[in-house]
TrEMBL record:
Record flagged with keyword Mitochondrion: no
Domain of life from the UniProt record: Bacteria
Molecular function GO terms recorded: oxidoreductase activity
Aldehyde oxidase/xanthine dehydrogenase a/b hammerhead domain ranges (all copies): 206-292
Signal sequence interval, chain numbering: 1-25
A Pfam family recorded for this sequence: MoCoBD_1
Phylogenetic placement of the source organism: Bacteria, Pseudomonadati, Pseudomonadota, Gammaproteobacteria, Pseudomonadales
Protein name, per record: Xanthine dehydrogenase family protein molybdopterin-binding subunit
Record PANTHER family: ALDEHYDE DEHYDROGENASE
Length: 757
C-alpha cells in the first residue's frame, strides 16, 4: 500500500473509507466514532471519508461550511450514487476543525467541483470492497456480483451492506488499484442531476438549525466590543467605565492584548446578558491614539491606485502567452483605452459576526462559530492565545450568510482573548449590525485600465489590462500567492477574470497591489472575488471596443472566442475552452431577442464571463433589458437572463437557486451596493444607508438556463454574479447613449452622464 493508498476497514462498529493525501490512513477511535481519519491533507485536495453502520446507514462527513447552498446534499449524493446506496439511508455530518481533515475552506465555488473526483473514487472503492466481501462469503467470483440499492446481489442471493459490515472484513487498495477502480457511466447515475430531498431543509424550516449566533455554554458571559477608529495602529489611551457600573449585570471592561495583531485597540465590555453588555458599552468612555488610516478616504485609495499603475515596473505580469504588447501597439492602425472603477463593497450578511470561546476540561480552546476557513482561522487563534494550533478547535455551525466574510475568521479572536483574560471562562461576543459593518473585510475599491490595438481592418491585434486593488490574500494568507512571469507574486483572487478566453493577439495582464488599501483596512474576499470587478471591466470594454471597431457587440465577441491555442481549453473541467463561452453567449442573446427594436429609453445588453479561474471555468452569459428614466436617472432592469455551462449539474434545484441568488447579487452590486472609506472608517453602518437590492427592485423576469454538458462539474456559487453589471452598463448605453464606468451605477451617475450628451 502506497502513501497515497486507500484503506477500507470493515468492523463490527461499521465500515469506514478515507482518502489520505500524502499520509497513510489509520484508525483513530479516540477522535471519531467510526471514521478513518487522515492526517493533514495537501492544499486544494481536502481529505474526505464516510462510514456505514451495521444497519446500512451511511454517514458522510462534510468539511464544507453550510450557508444556504445545501453543500452537504450536493456532495453526499455524489458519494451515494457511486457507492450505490438509497438516498434515504444517507446522513450528512459537518465536522469540526482538526488537522486530520486537511485543508478546510468553503469558498471559490470549489466545494462540489473539487469533491467530484474524490467522492466518486471513495464511493467506487466502497462498492468494490463490499462486492468482494460478499463474493468471498458466497465463494463466487466478484464479477458475478453487483451492487444495487445498498445490497450486493448475485443470482438469487443478496446481502445488505449492513450485514456485510458485521462480517468484519478489511480491504486495502494501492494507489494504482484506486485509479483503476471502475466508475459508473454518467448516464447510469441515479442521484446526480436528479431531484432529491435536501438533507438540511427540514432543520431549517422547523427552526432546529443551529447557527453560530445560537451557540450557548453554561456559565458564559456576553461581550460587546468597542471598536477603535481605525482597523490598524490604534491604542487605548484612556478608559472610564464609571457610568457602565450602573447597568444591572455589568461585569467589567477589558482592553485586549492581541499578539496576532488582528484586533489592536479593541475594548470588550462584559455582562451577564447581551442587552446588558450592549447597554453598558454605550456608557463606557474610551479615547484612542489612532492609526495612519485616519487620514485615508476612498478617493485616496483610487488616486493612489492610479499612481501605482503609472509605474510599469510595479506588479506581476500573468502568463497569457505572448505578453510582448509594446511593439504591437506601436504599429497599430488605431488604439482604444478606458478606465473602470469600483467602490468599496461590504458583505452585510444577515447574521452579524459572533463567536463563543472557552477552554475546556482537556485544555483545548473551543471556538463555537460559523466559519468558512477553519484551517486559516485556527492558526491565527493559536497565535493570539499563545498556544499550539492543536489546542484550538472550531465547532461547526451553520452560517447565516457568509459570502466570503467568514473566510476571514478575525471575529473569533476578540472572544478568545476575552475568555483567556477570564482564565478560560466562556465568553460570547455578538456584534451589533453597525459593529459588524464597521469591522467588515470588504471588497476593496479598484482601478482598472484597459487598452486594445487594431490593425487597418479593425481587427484586434493586442490587448492590455492593468488592475490594482487591495489584496486580501496578500494580507491574510500570502503563501497562496503564485508568481507572475516577471517573478513578482500576485493575489490570484484580485486578478482572476482579467486572463480571459478571447483571442486578442499579444496580451498583457498586470496585477498591482494597492498598499494604501491594505494598510487602511483589511481587504476581504467577497462573492465572485476579483471576477466580479475584472469581468465588469473586460465586458464593458469589449462592448466599447466593438463600437470603436464599428461591429455588433455580439458578433465582435464571437469573432474573438475562437478556442485556439491556450483558449482551446483542456482537462476535465475546461475542455472546449472559448467555444463553450461562445455557446452560452449565443444562447443568452437568442433568449433576449438580441437585435430586435426596443421602445424609447429601453435597451438590451449582453456580457459573458467564465466565473473565476481558468482551471475551473463556469461559462456564464447574461442578457438584460433595461429602461432608463432620463429625469430621475433610475435604471429599471426588466429582464435578467442567465445562461450557464458548469459541466455536469450535480444538484439541479441547488444550482438554479445558486445562480438566481448570484445574478441578483450581481444586480445589487451593479446598481445599489457600494460604500466608501471616510477617514479610516466605512461611511455606512446599517441598511438605512447601505442599500442592497430590495424585493421590489427585483426584475419581473429572472431566468436561468443550463447548457447540457458531459464535462466535469465546475462551481456555481459565484459565477453568475460576474456578467450582470457589464450587461446592465451595456444596456444603458443602448437605451440612452451614455457609458457608465464606475460601480455602483447610481441615478446621479446616470443623470450626470446624460447632462454631458
Amino acid at each position: 500500500m502506497t502513501r497515497r493508498g486507500f484503506l477500507v476497514a470493515v468492523t463490527l462498529a461499521g465500515v469506514s473509507f478515507g482518502f489520505p493525501r500524502g499520509v497513510l490512513a489509520a484508525m483513530d477511535p479516540a477522535t471519531s466514532d467510526d471514521a478513518v481519519l487522515p492526517s493533514e491533507g495537501a492544499i486544494y485536495e481536502p481529505s474526505v471519508w464516510y462510514s456505514i453502520d451495521n444497519t446500512g446507514k451511511v454517514k458522510v462527513n462534510i468539511i464544507r461550511a453550510e450557508m444556504g447552498q445545501h453543500v452537504g446534499t450536493s456532495i453526499a449524493r455524489i458519494l451515494a450514487d457511486e457507492l450505490e446506496v438509497p438516498w434515504k439511508d444517507v446522513e450528512i455530518v459537518h465536522v469540526d476543525s482538526a488537522k486530520k481533515w486537511g485543508l478546510m475552506v468553503t469558498g471559490g465555488s470549489w466545494s462540489v467541483s473539487q469533491s467530484w473526483p474524490i467522492y466518486r473514487q471513495a464511493g467506487a472503492a466502497g462498492r468494490v470492497a463490499l462486492i468482494e466481501a460478499a463474493a468471498k462469503k458466497w465463494a463466487v467470483s466478484a464479477d458475478a456480483c453487483v451492487a444495487l440499492d445498498g445490497k450486493v446481489v448475485s443470482g438469487k442471493q443478496e446481502i445488505s451492506y449492513g450485514e456485510l459490515v458485521a462480517l468484519g472484513v478489511t480491504r486495502e487498495f494501492s494507489e494504482a488499484e484506486l485509479k483503476a477502480l471502475p466508475l459508473k457511466a454518467d448516464a447510469d447515475l441515479k442521484l446526480v442531476g436528479k431531484p432529491v430531498t435536501s438533507l438540511d431543509i427540514a432543520n431549517k424550516t422547523t427552526g432546529d438549525a443551529v447557527f453560530g449566533i445560537d451557540a450557548k455554554r453554561e456559565g458564559m458571559v456576553y461581550a460587546s466590543p468597542l471598536l477603535p477608529p481605525t482597523r490598524y495602529g490604534a491604542k487605548v489611551t484612556q478608559l472610564d467605565d464609571t457610568a457602565a457600573k450602573a447597568v444591572k449585570g455589568y461585569r467589567q471592561t477589558l482592553v485586549l492584548d492581541d499578539p496576532s495583531g488582528t484586533v489592536p485597540g479593541w475594548v470588550m465590555v462584559l455582562a451577564d446578558s447581551y442587552y446588558a453588555a450592549h447597554k453598558a458599552a454605550g456608557l463606557v468612555k474610551v479615547s484612542w491614539e489612532v492609526g495612519e488610516a485616519a487620514k485615508v478616504s476612498e478617493a485616496d485609495i483610487i488616486n493612489h491606485g492610479r499612481e501605482l499603475l503609472k509605474d510599469a515596473a510595479k506588479g506581476a505580469i500573468l502568463d497569457t502567452g505572448d505578453t510582448n504588447t509594446a511593439p504591437v501597439f506601436g504599429k497599430a492602425a488605431s488604439t482604444f483605452e478606458q478606465e473602470y472603477l469600483t467602490q468599496t463593497v461590504l458583505h452585510a450578511q444577515m447574521e452579524p459576526l459572533n463567536a463563543l470561546a472557552f477552554r475546556n476540561a482537556d485544555d483545548i480552546w473551543e471556538i463555537h462559530s460559523g466559519c468558512q476557513w477553519q484551517s486559516l482561522t485556527t492558526a491565527v487563534l493559536a497565535t493570539a492565545l499563545g498556544v499550539k494550533e492543536e489546542q484550538v478547535t472550531i465547532r461547526a455551525y451553520m452560517l447565516g450568510g457568509g459570502f466570503g466574510r467568514r473566510l476571514n475568521g478575525d471575529y473569533t479572536i476578540p472572544a478568545a482573548l476575552a475568555s483567556k483574560a477570564l482564565d478560560g471562562k466562556p465568553v460570547k461576543m455578538v456584534m451589533s449590525r453597525s459593529q459588524d459593518m464597521q469591522f467588515d473585510s470588504p471588497r476593496s475599491a479598484s482601478v482598472q485600465q484597459l487598452k486594445m490595438a487594431f490593425d487597418a481592418h479593425k481587427r484586434v491585434i493586442a490587448m492590455e489590462h492593468h488592475a490594482t486593488a487591495g489584496w486580501p490574500t496578500q494580507v491574510m494568507v500570502p503563501v497562496f500567492m503564485p508568481k507572475g512571469i516577471n517573478g513578482q507574486p500576485f493575489d490570484p483572487f484580485a486578478i482572476a477574470g482579467a486572463d480571459h478566453w478571447y483571442t486578442v493577439g499579444a496580451q498583457k495582464v498586470r496585477a498591482v497591489s494597492n498598499d494604501l488599501a491594505n494598510a487602511s483596512f483589511r481587504p476581504g474576499w467577497l462573492r465572485s472575488v476579483s471576477a466580479g470587478w475584472t469581468g465588469w471591466a473586460v465586458e464593458s470594454f469589449m462592448d466599447e471596443a466593438a463600437h470603436h471597431a464599428g461591429k455588433d457587440p455580439l458578433a465582435f465577441r464571437l469573432d474573438l472566442l475562437t478556442a485556439e491555442g491556450r483558449n482551446a481549453g483542456s482537462g476535465p473541467i475546461a475542455i472546449g475552452g472559448a467555444s463553450r463561452q461562445a455557446a452560452v453567449l449565443k444562447k443568452a442573446a437568442a433568449m433576449i431577442g438580441w437585435g430586435t427594436p426596443q421602445p424609447t429609453g429601453t435597451g438590451l445588453g449582453i456580457a459573458s464571463t467564465f466565473g473565476q479561474e481558468r482551471e475551473m471555468p463556469t461559462w456564464v452569459a447574461c442578457a438584460v433589458q433595461v429602461h432608463v428614466d432620463k429625469v430621475t436617472g433610475l435604471v429599471d432592469v426588466q429582464k435578467l437572463y442567465i445562461v450557464v455551462d458548469a459541466g455536469i449539474i450535480v444538484d439541479p434545484d441547488g444550482a438554479e437557486a445558486q445562480c438566481q441568488g448570484a445574478a441578483l447579487w450581481g444586480l445589487s452590486m451593479a446598481l445599489f451596493e457600494g460604500s466608501e472609506l471616510v477617514k479610516g472608517k466605512f461611511k455606512d453602518s446599517n441598511f438605512d444607508t447601505y442599500t442592497p437590492l430590495r424585493m421590489l427592485q427585483t426584475p419581473p423576469e429572472v431566468k436561468i438556463e443550463f447548457i447540457s454538458s458531459k464535462a466535469a462539474p465546475s462551481g456555481l456559487g459565484e459565477p453568475a454574479v460576474t456578467p450582470v453589471a457589464p450587461a446592465i452598463a451595456n444596456a444603458i448605453y443602448n437605451a440612452v447613449g451614455v457609458r457608465l464606468r464606475k460601480l455602483p451605477m447610481t441615478p446621479d451617475d446616470v443623470k450626470a452622464a446624460l447632462s454631458k450628451v
